[in-house]
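Annotators were shown the component list below and the corresponding predicted structure, then asked to write short factual statements about the assembly.
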Amino acid sequence: MRLPRRVPWESLSELDQVCSLIYADENDIDAKVQAVNRISAWRAITSLPHALESTLALLCAILDDSRRQGLPSLLSLRQSYATALIRLVNGLVDPLQVGAYARSIASIAAQLGLPAWLVELRHAATHEDLPSIDVLREAAREAMRWLLDNYFLPTLNPSAAAPSPKTVLRPLSPLLKQYKTLLKGTTRDASLLPTRKHEIAKVTRDIERWVAEAKVAANVSVDAIEWDIGAQDDSMEDGRERWALERLCDALLELGALVPVSKKKRTISGVPLAPAPANLAIWTPLLTNLQSLHPKLPAVLAVRIVSHLLSRSGPSQADVGADTVSLLPQDDAQMDTSYDRCLAGWANWLVDTCGAGAEEEEQEMLRRDDIVVSLITGLGPQREASKTDIMVAQDLLTALCAGHPHLERVAASLPPIADAPSNQWNSTDIDLMQQRLSAVLALARAPDAPSSSATGALGAQPPNITNPMEPVCTGLPPGWRLLSEKDGWRPSPIGVHVPRVPA
Amino acid sequence: MLSAVAARKARLQGPATTQPVAVIPTPTSPPAPSLTPVSEPRIVPKLQSKRKAAVQVEKPPSKKKKHAHTAESDRRTRYFEQPDVFKQQGDANLVDDDHADEDTDTSGDDMPVDGAQLNPQIIGTDQRKGATRRRAWSPSAPDSSDDEEDGVVEGNALPSLVPILAEHLRAVSHDAPSVLSTFKPAWEENIFRLSQSEVHDLSLPSYSEQTGTLLLLTAEETVTLLGTYSLTVLRGCISFAGVVLTPSRVSHRVFAPRSSPLPVIKCLALKVPLRDLSLPARLRTTATSMDAAVLLQELHTGVQGLGAVCRTFDGVFSPSRSQSNVSAFDLNLRGVHLVRHCTHDISVLVIPPSWETAMSPILQPAAQTDYSRRVYLVKGPQNSGKSVFARTLLNRLLTLYRRVAFLECDLGQSEFVPGGMVAVNVVDKPVFGPPFTHPSIPHSAHYIGAATPRNSPSHYLDSVQALIQTYNVHLQHAGLVDDTSQGVSSDEDRIVDLIPLVVNTMGWTKGLGADLSRRVEEITDPSDIFELGCRVPQRVWSYSPSEIRTYLLEPVPSTVLSHRYTPADNRTLSMLSYFYAVFPVKSDASALQNCTAMSWRTSLPLCAQPPYEVDWKSAFDRTFLTGAGTEDVVPTEIHRVLNGAIVAMVSCEPDTLDTETDDMTAAWSTSPPYKQDAAPPTPFGSSCAGLALVRSLSPVPASVLHLLTPLPPHALSRVRVLVKGELELPVWGMLDFRAGDGGEIAGVESGKVPYLRWGKGEGTGGDRRRVRRNLMRRGQM
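Structure shown to annotators:
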């Protein structure tokens, strides 16, 4: 469930009103005073969006400037301009400092489309001589214009916002290749490790940085993401991170990364569905490192692999993994089952090693159950083990369920339907679906029974409390009166007044 | 910051072999030397040579450096090495040298479960630590949160490595989970259903009309229960939540949600004869061979409904999925669940041995004629267990004194009041449960209006000063003149005529916070100071240290819960719990009787609860705004600011408000009485009764406010002033839980609900400011 956010205005029309008070007539001081009063009041209600708070600070400085007759010195004016500008730039830039290391403010400002000279002015006003009043006035004008274009107009007219250009990320493959080459050396010959350590550390850091950059860039392409369940302030953050991780996983799934180019190295005979040890040795350090920064990585990677495996099952499912497929080399000669088998091995390994227990409640963690569910759903009822293209997915399902009696039961309860359903709708189809559904539900109900009955009993049972309103009515101080539905009062959202209707 | 950089360096340089800083809590000055329990050395299979050969780009950051700074925070961490990839996967071993060191260093962390002390040391610390899992560092989700400011990332949040091979972690957390209940229930052997009449015959003052379940325990047996229940000790002696309970007709209300450490009932072997209550005849013979008899009864308060109000805490009173999978023993009590094993989302209340040592001298029954001032101040950094210690101390003192006063100076996480205020409560019954389960009407309180005194330090100090005066003058010896205690308690063996004071301080111990804490210490003039989690003994005493006994205590080990529920979450829940609470209506106006909520009205959301209609012209003299920037609010906008606000209801002494001029009075006929840039009422001439939510205001010509407040009428009688601070109603409180996830509120669809915005706003800078304090420069790598 996504929580809404408290805003100080009743509706956007109130914000629109403030916007026109500020921008309609540049010389209308009274209107600006009204706007300052309104925003100051909003500020006392709840914390404001940064852009609005900056608008307030700039407006106050501009108003002071317009009424400056009689001021003994302009220093205070310069200071209030400078503070407003410094805080504007800092506040806009800070949310985009999402990595462990500081990015330069100039680069973030460029991403935001903030004029570069405002960034320079921020630096000068903070660390150097306080800029002249002329420069500051011009900067304030520029900043107000920027706020109108980048905050007020997009907020007030959500649909009118220009579509952002498609994000272009620099390719990750060279970095991965470099990493692989280094690790190949050190895994074969441990004595190389001391000399290569720094190089490995550097390339690992470069990859980390790539993810951080992708996360920032996700800013504009984030609309395409389905939001995860998340806390209010984290949801956007989650979406960005997920997007960046998906791009990372796409690069990892390319041939020559997690899946070696040489077919012989892809799998080891005898051990079904596990990455080859040499391969594992190369990638584990990087994955470990990335996972420490992005705990969701195993989950994203496993989901990516599964959706790739399922997308192989036929053109009808192209929509499931269209994104993935397009990123993979289309050369089918290379893409034989050993490629899929190797990926399935990774997925199996991921679930085995980093999968959280089934009881884990963290949303973002990799769960065996989730992967099994997506496999079963993706495979659909006509899972025919003979079909080679989905055989790998089928094998992965078996491997994942093995050793987990609960999951084995689920998988067994949904036997593949032998005869592929025709496109014709039969009345028996619904019965079949019903039957399969109840088979699964019967399994689910068994272990969950105690908890659901327990919570149900407590939740449904209204607490046995004598109506507390009755005694409260007596002894109220003058001017107080308890309302009830009899007075014409009815429930309404907090902040909406429902007057009493005199009887 | 330094530590983070150091860790980064260490990681890049490979295995570090620094020695951890040994931290041994040693009580200074008078009290007895601390117990130094022998920890069992952990047997750790190490494959050093193999590991060296493996590809090891990184090594867990040398947490030892961090150890010196925030040792208590990383007790939960456990690192595992990667597998030796040349061997088979299953061969990888957990590297536990870090942890093993810790075990020996931090004494008492792994307290061996030992025998017949009167020591409510709770089992299960060890495995619980294994079960906890450190969350990976992420800038969006700060690892530690600072009391000082929400949403600020602490400076020393350290990128930690969560090893990819969590397999072993799971193995550790799953194998042999520690047993929380050694009690093996068997009907008609050691557990009995009591009928209504059998309970009635016990002549308990409360819950006598309910059936119950009687447990017979032998010494050392433990029972851990989840849920809400009433607990009555009939025979023998048990330790519970750090307190020793002896037979009494008093039933204790216990709230044990999963969101806080669970208290454990432990039977004690006591040879001293106690005044046992007579059990039903059919049980007497069975009971003689047992050491204690405990009566459990259902407790229905509606508190579970708060989980529906604030979904963060959904279902905390019932077992989580992982526990409900284990077939549970049915106690025949609704809402009570027996917890046998420790799982990853449960933690139990641990009273470290150094706490025991520190508390024992002050609990010696003093001579009846000793009327010296007893003020116990509890201090320490955030998350060190201050409030748990303060609550335990309070409960312990209540076994010796009939009443204990509790001064809350922590604005963020208050024990009895909803936050944003400093308050004195007079408590006469031990409290078992987290703060949100016992919201109370304070004896005396002053509203600060924010979760931190950052913006109004002097008002905060004045408020503490005023409350201490109240305690010194009105409370300390109030038992002497309070006639209610005389008649009631002829068999009262507790001290009646002195009311000691427990002071809980805030966790903000850096910068201005340190200065404020020092001033609070001076103002309260404690007789004993309990300092938790102090590593560097740097104190500036401005008074003679010899008069104050100071105890340095080890911090409580951080639990999995502090990750799951942030201080902000707990604050939200406390606030909502307060507004949904139902306070008893007092029959007599005895100021010393504590008024704690007995139930919660959670069947209706706040937006559907009938409000009070208040005419501000006749009911209120003034309204004030406090908080940074509120002095800029002009009178024409006050209407807007008050709508939907949380206000404190304050009563002022006559003549403490400045007189209003005629033109102000004229203006107040059309808007609430407000004067721009006015200082809030002085704490020395006012008192805060409680909070109210201004759910709406009438359009301008009328002078009507609709208020929601849980306060009973007797508490409202003197309220003439409203103060709005920085506290806001949590968004959860504005929603309508009846509508499910649809977001409909009182029949209004989500897009049209005023003052709320769903979804992400467009436009740059449309979000609230985020502050990061752990940003590193490239050069620091």
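Statements collected:
1. Chain A has a mean pLDDT of 75.
2. The longest helix of chain A spans residues 427-460.
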